[in-house]
Amino acid sequence: MHQASNTPNDKASRAGSGAPAPASPLTAQAIRQLRGQKRESQEKFWSRFGVTQSSGSRFEAGVPLPGPLAILIRLYAIGKLNDKLLGA
């Protein structure tokens, strides 16, 4: 049985394999910028994700997003998720 090795050459060959690069973390600044682009209040922006305005404010101030919420916001930001799909 052949086992895959983790030599630098193996990693380099996988790097060009078309696998997606890891996403950068969603920063508070990036979230504020997204909301600003939408020209929405905190209440309107965060409510589509089931988040209160006060919690949304904390996230925009730098409190880390829970993983599932971060995924939703990323999908929303790249247009793979919209208000209709979110039920907003």
From TrEMBL:
The biased composition feature labelled Polar residues covers: 1-10
Q: Where is the RsaL-like HTH domain?
A: 32-76
InterPro entries (alphabetical): Cro/C1-type_HTH, HTH_RsaL-like, Lambda_DNA-bd_dom_sf
| Compositional bias segments (type: Low complexity) | 14-25
Q: Write one Pfam family the protein is assigned to.
A: HTH_92
Q: Which intervals of the chain are annotated as region Disordered? A: 1-27
Query: What is the protein name given in its UniProt record?
Result: Helix-turn-helix domain-containing protein
Q: Which organism is it from?
A: Massilia jejuensis
